[in-house]
């Protein structure tokens, strides 16, 4: 039986050239007026999936 890609994970994670996964940061949906601009700028940047969660993402994205 073919392995299927988890479609929710495919929309949230992208594989990098080194084999890791990049992700978007949380806490940027609402309540932005009270945050200062420096915090919002940091939250816009992409982050890497941690090593502890990387195996789970690997299983959800069998085809990369």
Automatic annotation (TrEMBL):
Source organism, top-level taxon: Bacteria
Basic residues composition bias: residue spans: 1-34
Region of interest: Disordered: 1-64
Example of a GO cellular component annotation carried by this entry: cytosolic large ribosomal subunit
Record has Ribonucleoprotein as a keyword: yes
Database matches in InterPro entries: Ribosomal_bL35 (IPR001706), Ribosomal_bL35-like (IPR021137), Ribosomal_bL35_CS (IPR018265), Ribosomal_bL35_sf (IPR037229)
GO biological process: translation
SUPFAM superfamilies reported for this sequence: L35p-like (SSF143034)
Keywords linked to the UniProt accession: Ribonucleoprotein, Ribosomal protein
Pfam families: Ribosomal_L35p
UniProt-recorded Gene Ontology molecular function terms: structural constituent of ribosome
Similarity annotation: Belongs to the bacterial ribosomal protein bL35 family.
Name this protein carries in UniProt: Large ribosomal subunit protein bL35
Organism listed in the record: SAR324 cluster bacterium
